[in-house]
Write a structure and sequence with these properties.
The chain has two domains: 94 residues, ACT domain (Alpha-Beta Plaits, 2-Layer Sandwich); 74 residues, Alpha-Beta Plaits, CATH 3.30.70.1150. Helix content is 25%, strand content 43%. It has four helices and eleven strands, in the order E-E-E-H-E-E-H-E-E-H-E-E-H-E-E. The longest helix has 13 residues.
Length: 178
């Protein structure tokens, strides 16, 4: 079994293989079955999808699929070429060598023990999160940011007891003029 070490955009395994993190944006026609064909193609090549987000664009006839996968550059290039051949695919952008902005969103319902509300609010504020619902014994927190930021806040809040957690996949957009 591979044991990775390192963090960020790539992991180096003890056997010397490199596992690159790729953020890919696929602009597609907003039609039934397009997502299934794309994800099937990726999983058929042996890639696990770490993150997946889909939504309409500024044009309601188009959707943007943001996919985060890890793997070898050469194999991923073949996957990109295969996806590009699909009839409903308009454009593929691999952000690996681009400057881009990336964000995830998390909603978290956490226990709020008596006397601990101030501590929890302080942690949320430090990470620029928002408290979006307050109950007698729990809080619902929203945070948006890069994956590392979300993971760091989550680590600090875990000791209070997480009741429920939901996350989006990553979404990304290039920086500057293109």
């Amino acid at each position: 079994m591979h044991r990775p070490y390192g963090i960020g955009f790539f992991r180096i395994f003890r056997d010397g293989t490199i596992d690159m993190r790729h953020v890919i944006s696929v602009l597609v026609e907003n039609k039934v079955g397009v997502l299934a064909r794309i994800t099937g193609l990726i999983s058929g090549r042996g890639f696990n999808i770490d993150s997946l987000a889909v939504g309409e664009t500024e044009n309601p006839d188009l959707s943007r699929i943001t996919i985060v996968v890890r793997g070898d550059d050469a194999i991923l290039e073949q996957v990109r070429k295969q996806i590009n051949k699909l009839i409903d695919v308009i454009k593929i952008t691999d952000f690996t060598n681009e400057e881009f902005v990336e964000r995830d969103l998390m909603l978290l319902k956490i226990n709020c023990p008596i006397g601990k509300r101030g501590e929890i609010i302080e942690i949320v504020n430090i990470f620029r999160g928002k408290i979006v619902d307050v109950g007698l014994r729990d809080l619902v927190i929203e945070i948006a940011g890069i994956e590392d930021k979300i993971e760091a806040m989550l680590a600090l809040l875990r000791p209070y007891g997480i009741k429920e957690l939901v996350r989006t996949g990553s979404i990304a957009i290039t920086r500057g003029a293109r």
